[in-house]
From TrEMBL, chains A, B, C, D:
Its cofactor is Zn(2+). This is L-ribulose-5-phosphate 4-epimerase. One of its GO terms (molecular function) is L-ribulose-phosphate 4-epimerase activity. Residues 9-199 form the Class II aldolase/adducin N-terminal domain. GO terms for cellular component: cytosol. It catalyses: L-ribulose 5-phosphate = D-xylulose 5-phosphate. It comes from Mucilaginibacter straminoryzae. NCBIfam families: PRK08193.1 (NF006047). Keywords: Carbohydrate metabolism, Isomerase, Metal-binding, Zinc.
Amino acid sequence: MSKYDEIRQAAYEANMQLPKLGLVLFTFGNVSAVDRQEGVFAIKPSGVPYEDLSPDNMVIVDFESTIVEGSLRPSSDTKTHAVLYKHWEHIGGIVHTHSTYATAWAQSQRDIPIYGTTHADYLATDIPCAPPMSDEMIEGNYEYQTGFQILNCFQERGISPKEVEMMLVGNHAPFTWGKTAAKAVHNSAVLETVAQMALLTEQINPQAPRLKDALINKHYLRKHGPDSYYGQS
Amino acid sequence: MSKYDEIRQAAYEANMQLPKLGLVLFTFGNVSAVDRQEGVFAIKPSGVPYEDLSPDNMVIVDFESTIVEGSLRPSSDTKTHAVLYKHWEHIGGIVHTHSTYATAWAQSQRDIPIYGTTHADYLATDIPCAPPMSDEMIEGNYEYQTGFQILNCFQERGISPKEVEMMLVGNHAPFTWGKTAAKAVHNSAVLETVAQMALLTEQINPQAPRLKDALINKHYLRKHGPDSYYGQS
Amino acid sequence: MSKYDEIRQAAYEANMQLPKLGLVLFTFGNVSAVDRQEGVFAIKPSGVPYEDLSPDNMVIVDFESTIVEGSLRPSSDTKTHAVLYKHWEHIGGIVHTHSTYATAWAQSQRDIPIYGTTHADYLATDIPCAPPMSDEMIEGNYEYQTGFQILNCFQERGISPKEVEMMLVGNHAPFTWGKTAAKAVHNSAVLETVAQMALLTEQINPQAPRLKDALINKHYLRKHGPDSYYGQS
Amino acid sequence: MSKYDEIRQAAYEANMQLPKLGLVLFTFGNVSAVDRQEGVFAIKPSGVPYEDLSPDNMVIVDFESTIVEGSLRPSSDTKTHAVLYKHWEHIGGIVHTHSTYATAWAQSQRDIPIYGTTHADYLATDIPCAPPMSDEMIEGNYEYQTGFQILNCFQERGISPKEVEMMLVGNHAPFTWGKTAAKAVHNSAVLETVAQMALLTEQINPQAPRLKDALINKHYLRKHGPDSYYGQS
């Protein structure tokens, strides 16, 4: 028994959803779950195949990326998670994958335009794609700086991680988050679907217009506004 | 035992087909089954994962969207179903999904052109895409007005819901129906396949012509005309 | 026991491969197996779901499309099969599907160009797409005339059904055949894969050249020529 | 018991991964595993379906393609494997498939551009596509010459098979290798995913730039350089 059992279990279960949802090949992804009271999070160990994961081998790390408990090396992306947890105090879980369509948009260095209500059920703006990082950031403490690339993107655009729970790092791949690790995984699957639909939309009609404001507001607010009434179909 | 057991069972079974046929992610879809004698329909509860559905938790609603029986909240799209049942007296089941290819066509705001016999086996026209709704309709009783957007589209084009059992709401997603809930689900799967084939056809040959009238008539009438003889291969 | 047990079993097993190989939605496909000595073939009954098929409900039909044995209606495409068996005396099985990529090429009314060795391992030419049938043929004995559309296409191009075991009927869908029903199904799966690869090839490089003759000859002849030595990897 | 049991087992297990990873249709692929001390490798027999494979029916062949042990005919691509083992002394396993996206790039005769970090996690250059072979090479000892086409491509470009473990033979299909047969299969799956992502990237943004050098170096070196610290997420 450990006081971290709950986040270990949550991180384990969320990580195991990634292959089931078709979001990862081999070990190309990781999920973490945070304990705000203890100031630590549980994250997937590095390079361990999904079939060998268990709650026990999740690694406990604090917001300075120091290992608190666990015998395995934490995911190489741990520093990015730590930066986000430290600066975004309301989020409870983070996911990083290289899912096919979302990664293709990241490689294309384009925001994913909001083309339909599937997208607007989750966020009221395009899905942001941060520009590729500067050489200085890359050559320095890369994974740590990746966290700041994400923070800076949101600050510059004046958008809130409470309202936009998914984004792309240019040339790299998607990150999502949420109140819990499970919700962050849910968002990863939604992002992948929305990314595919957006590409198909442009292929069917290269002049497809962005969703009109009335529909954006209706769909976003019926699920997320103070008077929300919508429970996903 | 309830006099609604039959439609509860039909709605339950039809809803469970959606994930099996790959037509939904999470809870992005709903099916209802009507009892014309009682003037009510059974519909999926809102936001409940497919693995937790049972015939018992289907919600019974009348054509004014009033809950008649059931402890859970009905699907948020219930009012759209109610409007269609009220005005189209011959239909027995309705499906709404956000299936990938059909939704991409809806986002593109284009009818799906009739390019081949797979399409003509089901309907003799392009698959209609209603325009996005007016701001007034969206900001008012949105899900109720969605029903009228569908009705209006069919009326303006002079097509019958008996002959065209599938359509797209622009910027939103597909709706299908049929004599039974099971047939409505069948139509949803056909729509998704036809939507994918139509995009691929345009990619292979941007000048691909619509299907000629003789083939449309032959394929549609051999399955649906008074002298139909065709049982789907 | 019936003297047709062998072809019933062969037709049954081959039909059951179609959903396993992802080549059919619902009942959009059919396979037949011929008995040359008896002058009959066994074919899937019309409109029966794959899960309800058994060797017993395959229908036995002669080359004039007359039912010889069986209580169910044979596939609506039976006349096309009958015409091909009657005129192409060496073939042992026939498959018709509406598989996604092959059907998209048929709808595009284009031959599938020979772009690589995967294609050349099976045939030394483009995969022919017969033009859509004339209105006269369509309005007459349609399924019977479909057989002649296929025969005419091969005759006009001077290609042999021994060397080219797959083709597309324009605006409709693919047909394949082979020495046995199992081989015909194998060819259907190969056609679908080659059709997808050819579209992707054109998307990656719109100027992609056809395969050079030396490679066509090498790959085709090492599997099919008199000195063949190749057993599919 | 045989002194080749270990490579037979390794080749068997690696071959069985190909259908599980969706990299082969029917028997369109083969894997081999080498024993450097004995100067032989174990390879899949020709034309045997995956479900009938066992460690026992792997064929043992030396670097001149002479069968050393085994009653079945070795894969038709055996000579290509032999040439690569003979000239690249550090590789332990080789895979050849006709996986869909990688083959489409090969048919397009284009290198796969390095567009993102998923690619850079594995190699620091574009994935090379060797030109189609000369008629002389094709008409001669074809499978043997295919090995030299691969060797020549690497030599001309001045790249090392230690650093680039995957490539395409123009108009044909991909080959991958690695320290073990299992790693070579891993590389085949990565290649297929990277090939799909690269096509999608060009579809989303035809002007998508290649990955910047700082990101290539960071991602490649954190996994492969002398100071590597990365364990695949």
